[in-house]
Amino acid sequence: MKIAIESNDGKTIKSPLSKTKGYLVFDVDDANIMGPEYRRKHNKRRTVKSGKAKPLLCDCGTIISRGMDREALSKMKKKGLDVFITFNTHAQDALRAYLKERLINEQLIHRECSDTKNIN
Predict the structure, then answer these.
(1) What is the largest CA-CA distance in the chain?
(2) What pLDDT, on a 0 to 100 scale, did the predictor assign at position 111?
(3) CA-CA distances (angstroms) from residue 56 to 16, 34, 89, 96, 111?
(4) Are 47 and 68 in contact (CB under 8 A)?
(5) Most exposed of 1, 71, 97, 101 (fewest Cβ within 10 Å)?
(6) Cα gap 6→76, rounded to integer Å
(7) pLDDT tens column, 41-58
(8) Any long-range contacts for 59-62 (C-beta under 8 Å, 24+ apart)?
């Protein structure tokens, strides 16, 4: 899963009052956090086969921000992106907070074995 964090300097999360210049992109799997890769907003990523421009965050499922207006939030949600708003200014702290909250809020289902007997 790839997570993008709004950043103007490649280190910290941008202020909610400034325009987004780029994103820190982290690749997270079960055991590792890899990255970040800094993607500037004005750069266009190209596919190898078609040569057509790909959206900047087409491979990301989550955006972490310190705040965004309702219109931007609505656009992100329509694209199927999860949006996490944080008060952290350091990107890695915000990423850890997001992952911790996701872990806590995941609905884990405990299933009992079918051969378990009720003891009264």
Answers:
(1) 68
(2) 40
(3) 20, 18, 22, 23, 41
(4) no
(5) 71
(6) 13
(7) 875 554 555 566 667 888
(8) 59/2, 60/2, 60/3, 60/4, 60/23, 60/25, 61/1, 61/2, 61/3, 62/1, 62/2, 62/3, 62/4, 62/98
- Whether 33 contacts 52, CB under 8 Å: no
Q: 66-96 b/e with 16+ CB inside 10 Å = b?
A: bebeeeebeebeeeebeebebebeebeebbe
Of 108 and 17, the one with more pLDDT: 17
pLDDT greater than 50 at residue 114? no
Tens digit of pLDDT for each residue in 18-30?
888 999 999 998 7
Which one, of 8, 78, 81, 3, lies nearest residue 41 by Cα?
8
Instruction: Judge whether 26 and 33 are in contact, CB under 8 Å.
Output: yes
Judge: domain 2-105, CATH 2.40.50.140. no
